Amino acid sequence: MIHDLCLASSTIAKTDVYVSNIQEVYVGIVDKVEIGKNVKAYVRVLDASKKYFHNKNLKFMDLTLKAASQIISLKALGETSDEYTAVFLVQGMAIGQTSVTGIVTDRYGEKIYSVPQQIEVFPPFKLIPKKVTLLIGAVIQITSEGGPQPQFNIIFSIHDPSIASVNNSGFITGKTVGNSTILGMVQAVHAESGKVVIASQDKVEVEVIQLEAVRIHVPITRMKTGTQVNQSITLFPLQQQLQQSNMIGLQCSTLI
């Protein structure tokens, strides 16, 4: 208790002072970030009694966050998620893998390090193609490029499952005429909480049509064995405008 003898008051002003050493430093961050995008890292410091220091005291400990390489950038933020946490902005700068370590300094000038947390910076995640048009009952598969390496799972969902369905492998099946959107998500794990979060996502527009007629046009009626000719396919969707497919190559093995 601290008592100011210069104060002429019958009421004694008092405050509680708690003194403790630094025990541990914890860093919470997701293990994946897309290049050019940001995630947040959360840092907490524990005392000898396993209690968290208030975040307003962390500046006196020279709290810093350090990356093992320059493929990510780190910036301290003024915001806080709670009264015990310091928040840093982590941005992916180059593709690769690195680790992040929290560092504080105790009253003796000794540095205390957190357990390094691994993080991967991955190339932009994209679904291919961006738009799909298919018939009722037809099936087409969505592929992807970029994303975490070497392997990762994509979680697919569709806005309107009555229009089409999509499975875990990205196969879309047309069900009824209409339009919908498919969302593909790449997940990451938060190191501190163990919770699964979304690291990146992309979408594909889906249109399901019903054909009224199909017209195939070939510019010639005879050709030599082993030669090629382009043919065009014109689709007539029911109650929709005329649509024409891309030119495709026709390989002949016999004389037509």
UniProtKB/TrEMBL annotation:
Residues 122-195 form the BIG2 domain. Pfam families: Big_2. GO terms for cellular component: nuclear pore. InterPro entries: Big_2, Invasin/intimin_cell_adhesion, NUP210-like. This is BIG2 domain-containing protein. It comes from Micrurus lemniscatus lemniscatus.
